[in-house]
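Please fill in the sequence for the structure shown.

STRUCTURE ENCODING:
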């Protein structure tokens, strides 16, 4: 089970996802013998992946082109289970091929 983190307890800088994940992994290192921990970078050839439920978005549905998964920028619960995260953050819509 993951520790009960809140944004205020973690090193966080808006829009610096790789650095935020690096610091998160350093925090999770203390429980590495209890659970398997993975970091997954999702991208495409254009380095653009649309996600929803994001604080940095300017849109009411939270859509933004973003590049991280264990997500300090989500408006969903933190931590959030993978099933809920993928259903809420990755929408199947008619979006331009460039973002796929």
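FILLED IN BY: designer on duty
SEQUENCE:
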């Amino acid at each position: 089970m993951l520790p009960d983190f809140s944004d205020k307890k973690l090193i966080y800088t808006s829009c610096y996802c790789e650095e935020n994940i690096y610091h998160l992994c350093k925090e999770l290192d203390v429980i590495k013998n209890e659970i398997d921990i993975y970091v997954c970078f999702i991208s495409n050839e254009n380095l653009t992946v649309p996600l929803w439920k994001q604080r940095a978005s300017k849109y009411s549905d939270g859509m933004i082109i973003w590049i991280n998964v264990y997500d300090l920028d989500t408006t969903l619960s933190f931590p959030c289970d993978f099933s809920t995260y993928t259903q809420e953050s990755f929408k199947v819509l008619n979006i331009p091929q460039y973002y796929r």
